[in-house]
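Design request, tokens follow.
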């Protein structure tokens, strides 16, 4: 569709001396902004009575101190029930990929923004049954009680029934509201709305073509950037919040931290060590425009900067994930999207992972992990963007900036192989990334200073930590697995990283290859180094991984390579004995270790011994269609041996170090 840019003419004389209106939609009028169109108003905007500004595209309002953004009734008083300025979800039946109306306001003070905007809302569910839906509420002074009517359930002020929560970055805890008459006061707040026994479903309100209508006054631009410091500290920022051994410390509500706090970036064999759960910030998009976070980690050119340089950024996590139910009745989450950044100082921060998706939608939440507690600032105003793709780095910034461009030379690029798991219908149900660069570290390293890895947690697929000569590092094979895995492209060239998935719903893999975040051409294999990625199934031949190609999945294990492996490496790989796909791994979502079973197993016996030889857990004929949680006493520091025996006699032994 051709995009157009035009200014709205003077449709009404100024509303008053104090509040100037350039664009006025009168009673019985309907102004339609079509999908793909950008409408610009160099002054205030107003609707009257039943006049409608029907936004399927984008509205850009740039005013001054005397301009206003208003919805008024027939008598000229403020109209507060919504339904006049509507930001549409263009295809609600396929909301995850739908375009949507957006609103950008700049230069108008918050006191002059009294108009009510109706935002059409549908989004993937963050759970099933009883859970919290994580959202942003990009509205100024919105009464929390109004959400009960808008989403069709009754929230209350009890902490453990049907509350509305807001994350407190300093204290690493969710606050609940003791009065639903409370109004939103933190534009970038990270909110959680309780779902009880599926009493409301954010992905399916009443029918496939319907939406929730969320109403409120849009936020003005921020007066000052947000300071990033002291997350996971006390209110005074003078000491760390004490999470306790294995997260068994309690917050002011007597809740254990390990019941709700996770950290997908610091996932060692000893969770809750180091700065796990600290320097961890949770925000909501404060605007009704997308936020582009792709270039926030370094100083761009003087003419092309977005004004942000969060130099100690580790990564960003967003889209909490969608719960998928398997035919067996068990469920799994497709997982969050994650982007990690190389340490930048004042240089170019190279990104890895879901780099093309790091554009945060209106009403979407996200998380930022910093490498340390050095104070940083984040200016949300300059991150607003209509497009759903990341903008060009170092280009003159504006809300309509062009797509991201490659910015580094071949000698120091980040090269990335994305492996996307598809079901029988070609639908994505999981993904993982293998990333190489000359500056990365091969083998186990989860350093708050340098790592760009992130945990796969309880995801559907991932890679395992590599031994220095390739294959599994058996010291960590059953401790964690990775959503983003890094290796040094020089000393690990031609050696294999192990790829695993755990459900036979994965019928094929699709390859997505990037260099410095940019997709290489479709069908291409070779990168700027003259080398490419390779793929080999356990029972298949070595093949070149080419952009956009798909390969059938015939085995739960496979091998990924950067650079063609030598005959010696291949021969060694071929003679490696088959290992079970049963995995014991720490899952921060439940703050405990889990057993994820080989899909070929039907039943299993599980025994857990402490280091004195005492049997502490014994379970017979455990169902293998769902993860088994190893419920250890988190208050006791100990090491354990886990023995798992399948119904066919196959045995897996591993250790847990706590």
């Amino acid at each position: 569709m051709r995009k157009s840019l035009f200014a709205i003419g003077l449709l009404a004389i100024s509303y008053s001396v104090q509040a100037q209106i350039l664009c006025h939609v009168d009673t019985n009028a309907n102004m339609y902004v079509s999908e793909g169109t950008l409408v610009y108003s160099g002054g205030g905007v107003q609707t009257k009575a039943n006049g409608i500004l029907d936004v399927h595209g984008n509205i850009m309002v740039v005013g001054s101190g005397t301009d206003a953004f208003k919805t008024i009734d027939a008598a000229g008083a403020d109209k507060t029930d919504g339904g006049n300025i509507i930001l549409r979800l263009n295809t609600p039946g396929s909301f995850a990929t739908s375009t949507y109306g957006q609103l950008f306001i700049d230069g108008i003070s918050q006191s002059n923004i009294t108009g009510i905007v109706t935002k059409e809302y549908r989004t993937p569910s963050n759970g099933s049954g009883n859970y919290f839906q994580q959202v942003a509420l990009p509205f100024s002074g919105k009464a929390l009680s109004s959400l009960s009517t808008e989403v069709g359930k009754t929230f209350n002020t009890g902490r453990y029934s049907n509350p509305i929560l807001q994350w407190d970055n300093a204290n690493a805890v969710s606050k609940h509201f003791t009065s639903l008459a409370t109004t939103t006061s933190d534009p970038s707040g990270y909110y959680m709305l309780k779902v009880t026994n599926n009493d409301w479903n954010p992905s399916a309100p009443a029918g496939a073509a319907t939406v929730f209508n969320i109403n409120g006054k849009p936020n003005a631009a921020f007066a000052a950037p947000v300071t990033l410091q002291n997350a996971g500290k006390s209110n005074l920022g003078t000491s760390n919040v004490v999470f306790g051994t294995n997260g068994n410390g309690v917050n002011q509500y007597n809740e254990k931290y390990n019941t709700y706090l996770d950290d997908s970036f610091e996932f060692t064999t000893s969770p809750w060590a180091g700065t796990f759960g600290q320097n961890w910030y949770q925000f909501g998009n404060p605007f009704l425009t997308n936020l582009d976070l792709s270039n926030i980690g370094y100083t761009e050119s003087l003419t092309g900067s977005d004004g942000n340089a969060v130099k100690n950024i580790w990564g960003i996590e967003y889209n909490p994930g969608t719960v998928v139910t398997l035919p067996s009745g068990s469920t799994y989450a497709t997982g969050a999207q994650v982007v990690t950044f190389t340490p930048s100082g004042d240089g170019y921060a190279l990104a890895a992972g879901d780099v093309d998706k790091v554009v945060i939608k209106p009403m979407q939440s996200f998380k930022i992990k910093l490498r340390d507690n050095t104070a940083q600032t984040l200016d949300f105003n300059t991150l607003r963007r209509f497009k759903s793709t990341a903008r060009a780095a170092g280009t003159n910034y504006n809300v309509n900036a062009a797509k991201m461009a490659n910015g580094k030379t071949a000698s120091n690029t980040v090269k990335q192989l994305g492996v996307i798991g598809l079901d029988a219908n070609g639908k994505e149900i999981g993904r993982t990334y293998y990333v190489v660069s000359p500056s990365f570290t091969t083998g186990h390293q989860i350093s708050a200073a340098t790592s760009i890895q992130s945990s796969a947690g309880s995801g559907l697929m991932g890679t395992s930590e590599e031994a220095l000569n390739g294959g599994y590092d058996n010291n960590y094979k059953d401790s964690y697995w990775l959503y983003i895995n890094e290796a040094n492209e020089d000393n690990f060239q031609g050696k294999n990283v192990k790829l695993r998935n755990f459900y036979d719903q994965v019928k094929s893999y699709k390859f997505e290859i990037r260099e410095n975040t940019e997709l290489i051409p479709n069908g291409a294999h070779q990168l700027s180094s003259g080398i490419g990625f390779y793929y080999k199934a356990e029972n298949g031949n070595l093949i070149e991984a080419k952009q956009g190609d798909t390969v059938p999945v015939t085995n739960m294990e496979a091998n990924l390579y950067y650079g063609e492996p030598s005959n010696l490496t291949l021969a060694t790989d071929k003679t490696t004995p088959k290992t079970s796909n049963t995995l014991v791994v720490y899952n921060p979502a439940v703050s405990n270790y889990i057993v994820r079973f080989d899909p070929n197993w039907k039943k299993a016996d599980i025994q857990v011994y402490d280091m004195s030889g005492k049997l502490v857990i014994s379970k017979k004929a455990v169902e293998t269609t769902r993860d088994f949680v190893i419920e250890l006493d988190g208050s006791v520091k100990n090491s354990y041996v886990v023995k798992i025996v399948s119904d066919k006699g196959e045995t897996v032994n591993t250790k847990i170090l706590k």
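Comment from the thread starter after seeing the answer: thanks! The CA atoms of residues 33 and 60 lie 11 Å apart.
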